[in-house]
Write a structure and sequence with these properties.
Blueprint (H helix, E strand, L loop, with lengths): L1 H23 L2 H8 L24 E3 L2 E5 L2 E5 L7 E5 L2 E5 L1 E5 L4 E11 L5 E10 L5 E9 L5 E9 L4 E10 L4 E2 L2 E2 L4 E11 L4 E11 L2 E12 L8 E2 L3 E5 L3 E5 L2 E6 L2 E10 L5 E10 L2 E18 L8 E21 L5 E10 L4 H5 L17 E11 L3 E12 L2 E3 L9 E2 L7 E10 L9 E12 L26 E12 L2 E2 L5 E16 L10 E15 L2 E4 L5 E13 L39 E12 L5 E11 L8 E3 L2 E6 L11 E10 L2 E9 L5 E12 L3 E10 L12 E13 L2 E10 L4 E12 L3 E10 L9 E10 L3 E2 L10
Antiparallel strand pairs: 1-4, 2-3, 3-6, 4-5, 5-7, 6-7, 7-8, 8-9, 9-10, 10-11, 11-14, 12-13, 14-15, 15-16, 17-20, 18-19, 19-21, 20-21, 21-22, 22-23, 23-24, 24-25, 25-26, 26-27, 27-30, 28-29, 30-31, 31-32, 32-34, 33-34, 34-35, 35-37, 36-37, 37-38, 38-39, 39-42, 40-41, 42-43, 43-44, 44-45, ...
């Protein structure tokens, strides 16, 4: 008998919930929700609001109005002919509306729809409310919140102004309607009782049953989550399960504690089966003119990972080694932008172990949050200030770095890798950049003044490529002090543009520059002391461009633009005493090829005669389709041997990593193509005089269907001519693709292949379910990077993202509130 009653109760619950869904999906309802009544501003009792009604007034529109004593009855028809009443910023529609003038109680029945000033909509078959909307009862209740979430119940009781109680209810953040009417939501919570506390801004459940696609998957006797209208609320976020051969099974349990609308804490312990837990913390605070974000972590454990325990060349798998000690990290940044031209900020980034991020899988530790960036596997701590107006800019900063890069990979096990020495990285304090332009043209053109100053201090000696071959001492260099450098630069740049009647653009320019260097702690074995070096350069030149366009019969446009630059500079003395701190690499492309200073920094300087030429061809079709190609090269009057540096694996030989040392530079070839709105790509390459590719990059993005997509990218560097353990040439291919097969079900694959070593460094393959409010992925992944101290790692991954409830990650730590 009890089983029969439970079955009958369950069937009745399902029938009533479907009735609520049918009300919410009714055609007339959608129209009402699309234009909710505006909320009147606070006003005096006799002052009309934006809808023309005073706070105590009621507007009615009905097919028939009757009064029986103190009871007023409004009668209407079904659908669009329902009776309407507007009061206190609310809009009420129903087939019949009753109001007791003496008792202050109102009711409605028949396709009832109540729209709040905030846009939340309540549907019911029957509803009773007091005149202040603080208490009431509803049957076959359904509400659609302003963010798209839905809450339905067989019955609902409004206990007070802030508390709603629902019996046999269902909540879902997913759409419950489609073109055919009600549909089963992808994710839902069904409960015996639900309490919506608007003061606590929370929804509480008793006997909650979680359903995915209508199928029961999980049960909790008690459950709670924030009201969907809450941007942030204290509580547990979705756990993050992972697996690593070094840590074992890991489960991260993030808990968010909201202190105020402008401050919160995130406590996220990572529980591991093979090693001690790692406690992650995050604090965020927003101010009127800025924000501070602090991330940190702590554990007390020994190192772990693949290790040559027996010394026989065969690594033991994931052993613990070394002393048990405190291990931690700090990742913090702040940005402040008060009124006026000044803004300032800082970053503080340090970690106790160079492999802690890899061992414990700390998410996204390398971020660009300050004025200067530390790049991949380098942490930067800095303090900076900027002042910017329409015509001027100045910045002052100081920073230091910590490197997590591998200097030498061990052939046996990554646990024995040798990392870059932090003492070999400079302390930069200060670095100043400034520029200024006058309001009015000077000699009809644009004048710009620049200034720069920097001081760099090193504790440990660093040879090539910082020091020139001429001042690298022979023999052992262990124990030598690092070279300290101070530089001041001033520069003036003037240029003016002319366009001839034939359409040729002529742009003459003049550039004047002066540098002063003070260098200390040079290697004493060469008889050098603290040195002061000055150099100057004066340049005059001309840029020429002649764009040509032709319209084809098909309606396409062909644009051909030859460009050229002719410049002559006074000779530059490439003094070997000047270290090369900021110009060790050059990325030649279409824009940098025509710059006066093609090096990214100041330490290397070009002079003499230069002729640079190129041509850009563009084809544009209808519907935004296009393709472009640029080819260019530069020539100089004489070779610049100072641009050559020793080969890392054979210091007796020199090579040119810049592509600018010869009389002719590398060829620059780059282009873009977009044959449709679903396919686009680009490529860039530099080719030396013998036709060999020095560097190249290419990427293609493709989309088909609404969510199917793929991206393939390729990058190669062949600038170092000699192979060896110090050779940093590389070649990678990366793939990411997503293909949906049946409905919302699909497959995903990602991978990075190291073609230089003929291995796949990272790969993932999985199955995905994705609809409007729910994305679930499960698959297999493998990490085979040489930096990982615990060797290759493989296992199953799970990712879950739910609308309203959040996802299996809590972001990068950025403050985007």
């Amino acid at each position: 008998m009890q089983a029969d009653r439970r079955a009958h109760r369950g069937q009745g619950l399902r029938t009533r919930l479907l009735a609520g869904a049918a009300l919410a999906c009714a055609p007339g309802v959608a129209l009402a929700q699309a234009a909710p009544a505006p909320q009147p501003a606070p006003q005096a009792a006799s002052t009309p609001g934006s809808d023309g009604l005073t706070p105590q007034a009621v507007y009615v529109d009905a097919r028939e109005t009757t009064r029986e004593g103190d009871v007023v009855v409004l009668n209407g028809g079904p659908g669009a002919d329902r009776a309407l009443a507007r009061f206190q910023g609310h809009t009420l529609r129903a087939e019949t509306i009753r109001y007791d003038l003496a008792g202050g109680v109102g009711g409605a029945e028949g396709q009832v729809e109540l729209v709040s000033p905030l846009g939340d909509t309540i549907f019911a078959d029957l509803i009773e409310l007091d005149d202040q909307l603080r208490a009431g009862v509803a049957v076959d209740f359904a509400t659609r919140l302003s963010n798209g979430a839905s809450l339905m119940a067989a019955s609902a009781v409004r206990r007070s102004e802030n508390v709603n109680e629902l019996n046999y209810a269902l909540f879902t953040p997913c759409p419950i309607c489609d073109a055919n009417g009600p549909k089963t939501p992808s994710v839902s919570i069904q409960a015996e009782k639900v309490v919506q506390n608007e003061e606590l801004r929370a929804i509480l459940y008793r006997n909650a049953l979680f359903r995915v696609g209508g199928v029961p998957v999980f049960f909790l006797p008690v459950f709670a989550h924030p009201d969907p209208s809450v941007d942030r609320a204290s509580g547990f976020l979705i756990p993050v399960p992972t697996y690593d051969e070094g840590r074992g099974v890991s489960l991260e349990l993030p808990y968010l504690h909201v202190v105020s609308p402008s401050e919160d804490w995130l406590v996220s312990p990572q529980i591991n089966t093979r090693v001690a837990p790692l406690l992650n913390l995050q604090w965020r605070r927003r101010f009127d003119d800025g924000v501070i974000v602090v991330r940190g972590g702590y554990t007390h454990e020994r190192n772990f990972g693949d290790f040559d325990l027996n010394g026989d060349g065969r690594p033991e798998s994931n052993v613990k080694f070394g002393d048990e000690t405190n291990r931690s990290y700090l990742l913090a940044h702040a940005r402040f932008d008060p009124d006026g031209p000044w803004r300032w900020g800082f970053t503080a980034e340090r970690v106790s172990d160079k492999t802690l991020f890899d061992r414990y899988d700390v998410r996204d530790p390398y971020q660009d949050n300050g004025l200067y960036y530390g790049d991949r596997r380098r942490l930067i701590s800095q303090l900076y200030a900027e002042r910017q107006t329409r015509r001027s800019y100045v910045s002052v900063a100081a920073f230091s770095m910590q490197s997590l890069r591998v200097a030498r990979f061990d052939p046996v096990t990554p646990a024995l890798n040798v990392f870059e020495n932090d003492d070999a990285l400079p302390l930069v304090a200060p670095i100043v950049e400034a520029r200024w332009e006058p309001n009015q043209p000077v000699f009809g053109g644009r004048l710009r003044l620049r200034g720069s100053a920097v001081s760099l201090y090193r504790d440990a000696y660093v040879g090539s490529p910082v020091l020139r071959p001429e001042i690298i001492p022979p023999g052992p260099t262990a124990g030598l002090d690092g070279v300290d450098t101070r530089r001041v630069t001033g520069q003036m740049d003037w240029r003016r543009a002319f366009i001839s009647p034939a359409g040729v653009r002529w742009e003459p320019f003049v550039d004047l520059r002066a540098d002063t260097y003070s260098i200390a702690e040079l290697p004493p074995v060469l008889g050098l002391a603290d040195e002061t070096v000055t150099r100057t350069r004066a340049t005059a030149g001309l840029d020429v461009a002649y764009p040509l366009i032709r319209r084809l019969a098909s309606g396409a446009d062909v644009i051909l633009e030859p460009v050229g630059q002719l410049s002559f500079s006074t000779g530059v003395d490439q003094d070997p005493r000047i270290p090369n701190e900021d110009s060790q690499t050059v990325e030649l492309d279409e824009s940098s090829l025509f710059r006066m200073d093609r090096f990214p920094g100041y330490d290397l300087l070009e002079g003499g005669f230069r002729l640079t030429a190129g041509v850009r061809a563009t084809l544009r079709w209808q519907d935004g389709r296009s393709a472009s190609l640029f080819i260019g090269r530069s020539s100089r009057g004489q070779e610049e041997h100072a641009f050559r540096v020793p080969v890392p694996d054979d210091p007796s030989r020199l090579y040119d990593p810049t592509g600018l040392a010869s009389k002719t530079s590398d060829w620059v070839v780059q282009g873009t193509f977009s044959p449709s709105d679903r396919v686009r790509g680009w490529f860039h390459t530099t080719v030396d005089g013998s036709g060999d590719v020095r560097r190249a990059e290419a990427a293609v993005d493709g989309r088909w269907g609404r969510r199917d997509m793929a991206t393939v990218s390729y990058i190669v560097d062949r600038s170092n001519p000699l192979g060896g353990p110090l050779n940093r040439n590389y070649e990678f291919v990366q793939l990411a693709a997503q293909q949906f097969v049946v409905g919302n079900w699909g497959v995903t694959v990602t991978g990075i292949a190291d073609l230089e070593r003929d291995i796949i460094t990272r790969s993932e393959a999985g199955i995905v379910f994705d609809d409007d409010c729910f994305r679930f992925e499960i698959g297999f992944r493998r990490d085979n990077t040489r930096v990982r101290p615990s060797g290759p790692s493989e296992g199953v991954f799970i990712r879950l993202n739910l609308a309203t409830f959040g996802g299996t990650g809590y972001g990068r730590g950025e403050t985007r509130w």
